[in-house]
Design brief:
Layout (H helix, E strand, L loop, with lengths): L1 E4 L6 H12 L5 E4 L9 H7 L9 E3 L5 E3 L1 H11 L10 H16 L2 H6 L9 H10 L1 H20 L12 H16 L5 H12 L3 H11 L15
Parallel strand pairs: 1-2
Antiparallel strand pairs: 1-3, 3-4
């Protein structure tokens, strides 16, 4: 099984299934494509073999069957490995976890646009400026904090949103990265959860790889220059 991803420092979508597979020790081959959004780039040509969306991530089975979109990949992996608690075992909790993943998948556009994932960067001044000026960013952050703190309280404090690390935590891992990079404030319970996610197996490995990447891409850097 092969997982096609983009740059680890920047690709929040790629991070989700990679972290999930690593956390559950599911064997896969990583194939990283350097971001290049020029027409007919090697990036687009490689993706065109597997998906019409021209986006990462893509999961490719041994027989060449491809699955794209992070939610679809997560469900595919869960179906292939029913013995693993990728989703909560309880039916209602499983539906709640899926609802929260779908909410993250479809929403929080202001956080995404103003605070793109950039693991190696430290931009707390940017985060503070945006928070002071943008009510929608404050609303996004408040909703994320509420999801985390309420779900942690509902299951007795964690350590993760539904007890043990699962798909929902892998899904929120890029949000944790954004919060760290931009110094965004959280309640005590949510801040502690963010630290646990960052230290979790899979997440920790992705962070290490992102820091080692050293591949500065101007078009992914609205707040830094190559010399910053």
């Amino acid at each position: 099984m092969q997982l096609i991803i983009g740059n680890k420092n920047y690709s929040s979508w790629s991070m989700r299934p990679w972290v999930l597979l690593k956390a559950f020790r599911i064997p896969f081959e990583e194939r990283k494509l350097r971001f290049d959004f020029a027409p007919n780039s090697a990036f687009y040509q490689a993706l065109a073999v597997y998906t019409p969306t021209a986006k990462v991530p893509v999961l490719v089975e041994d027989d060449g069957f491809a699955v794209w979109d992070t939610l679809a990949i997560t469900e595919h992996v869960a179906e292939r490995h029913p013995a693993l608690a990728i989703w909560p075992r309880d039916a209602q909790q499983r539906s709640r976890a899926r609802s929260l993943c779908a909410e993250m998948h479809a929403g929080f556009g202001t956080l995404r646009s103003l605070c793109p994932m950039n693991i190696e960067a430290a931009l707390p001044e940017v985060g503070a400026k945006h928070l002071a000026e943008n009510t929608r960013l404050r609303a996004d952050l408040a909703r994320i904090d509420a999801i985390w703190s309420e779900q942690l309280a509902a299951n007795g404090g964690g350590p993760f949103l539904f007890g043990e690390f699962g798909a929902i935590d892998a899904y929120f891992a890029p949000v944790v990265m954004r919060i760290k990079t931009y110094g965004l404030p959280l309640s005590a319970a949510s801040a502690a959860y963010a630290e646990r996610v960052a230290a979790a197996p899979g997440v920790r490995d992705w962070i290490a790889d992102a820091l080692a990447e050293q591949d500065f891409l101007d078009f992914e850097e609205p707040y830094r220059t190559a010399r910053a």
